[in-house]
Design a protein that fits this description.
- By secondary structure, the chain is of the alpha/beta class.
- It has helices at 3-15, 20-30, 33-39, 49-58, 66-75, 77-86, 97-106, 177-185, 192-207, 221-225, 247-259, and strands at residues 111-116, 130-133, 136-138, 144-146, 148-150, 161-168, 211-214, 233-239, 263-269, 288-292, 295-300, 306-309.
- The chain is built from 11 helices and 12 strands.
- It starts with a helix and ends with a strand.
- The structure holds S-adenosylmethionine.
- S-adenosylmethionine binds at residues 88-93, 96, 116-119, 123, 167-170, 216-217, 239-241, 244-245.
- It comes from Micromonospora coerulea.
- This is DUF2332 domain-containing protein.
- Pfam families: DUF2332.
Amino acid sequence: MTVAEVYTRFAAREAHGVSPAYERLALAVARDDELHALLRGLPPAKRQPNLLFAVVRLLGGPVEDPAAFHDYAVANWPAIGAEMRSRATQTNEAGRCAVLLPVLAALPQPLALLEVGASAGLCLYPDRYAYRYGDHHVGSGEPVLDCVATGMAPPARLPQVVWRAGLDLNPLDVTDPADLAWLDALIWPEHTHRRARLRAAAAVAAAEPPLLVRGDLVDDLPALAARAPAGATLVVFHTSVLYQVPAPRREAFVEVVRRLPGHWIANEDLDVLRHDALPEPPSGASHNVLALDGAPLAWTRGHGQALSWFA
Ligand SMILES: C[S@@+](CC[C@H](N)C(=O)[O-])C[C@H]1O[C@@H](n2cnc3c(N)ncnc32)[C@H](O)[C@@H]1O
């Protein structure tokens, strides 16, 4: 895809109805030849809207006004480009636990959780958060995660987690102000609820830090999985990770994870993890597919805000 197509698609499929500021900004960048030329100086994987917008936010630049954004980006491109080259989008969205919970709660308890592409590990605490599926409430902790769920009975209980470990190329530490600032910059401008959620989830993780291992989801997964305690159901899971992994490595990962004991939960875009015979997604917005052991179960929205069960 061209740079213009990438930004137009982001505006329509991800930001529309979710972030008016980023929808406006992405459409403006889609028409901005000067920024296209600068972005084309970066490797294709580094040209994505989320990375550009988060880096500008991290550096203190404006993202609400497209004209001011343009001027800032052009004037500060050496610093912006350097940050975009060295960083990846590592958005860590605890809200995604709301779409994992129905699957986790239905597995044989207790659970040993292993998240690949864990970022700071905030999705490793599904047993500590509270959930609202419409009128149905589960759990009593903080943050409270809202999810519009259809096609299923919401889970009646929280899972019991006895081990939690994460694997990431670049694990983030929520007790490090610089890492927290990057996680904050990755949250979209109007999403004050997600900023509050990040602080609340970070407090949970800081109180009981997860085992976070620096490593690759293919090469280093078996060794970490071998550290899971006996007597618990090993659950390897990942949400919004595989789009950052080259296709041959995605296939290698699927082979590795299928050979492990326990269960495998994927919550990924259909473009990066294929499934056959799916029903139509609920709307034109971008959706992930939630799957257990390779069997698709539901469409989910990117930040865990909605779940449409079809299995
Ligand atoms: C968009 S973040 C998602 C974080 C978390 N799963 C969530 O849903 O909140 C993707 C994460 O995957 C990690 N990642 C990308 N490629 C990886 C690989 N080959 N091995 C391990 N982690 C990887 C990145 O460093 C990043 O932290």
